[in-house]
């Protein structure tokens, strides 16, 4: 949620509840207006029944999966999430689904438990993009 709000408002808010939100946002990219619809799902809700997750996957055109570099468990669930997304989306068509893995909390390097290299290697092995960021910065 912090990363989504930072993208939408350019402000950092550190604490969020466990709420699911859909945001809409216009952005000019290369002179073209792009309308983003962002379905922000907290990690605690990503373990729900697969029918809810399937609905989200069918709704979306691309995916940004965010983990905390300070939380190994948030990183470890990514391969299964990505396999689930690919099976649901790519099974319907031959097009590659755009997926980006984002390691957040780069500013908390002193609490890091997942290395940048691990993130890059995971993204490479699953044919995804990769970035490390800090919503706070």
Automatic annotation (TrEMBL):
Keyword annotations of the record: GTP-binding, Hydrolase, Nucleotide-binding
Source organism, top-level taxon: Eukaryota
EC number: 3.6.5.2
PROSITE patterns xrefs: RAB, RAS
Matching InterPro entries: P-loop_NTPase, Ras-related_GTPase, Small_GTPase
Reactions performed catalytically: GTP + H2O = GDP + phosphate + H(+)
A molecular function (GO) term: GTP binding
EC class: hydrolase
Pfam family, one: Ras
Keyword Translocase: no
Family: Belongs to the small GTPase superfamily. Ras family.
PANTHER family, per the entry: RAS-LIKE FAMILY MEMBER 11 (PTHR45704)
Protein name, entry field: small monomeric GTPase
Species per Swiss-Prot/TrEMBL record: Pelecanoides urinatrix (Common diving petrel)
Source organism phylogeny: Eukaryota, Metazoa, Chordata, Craniata, Vertebrata
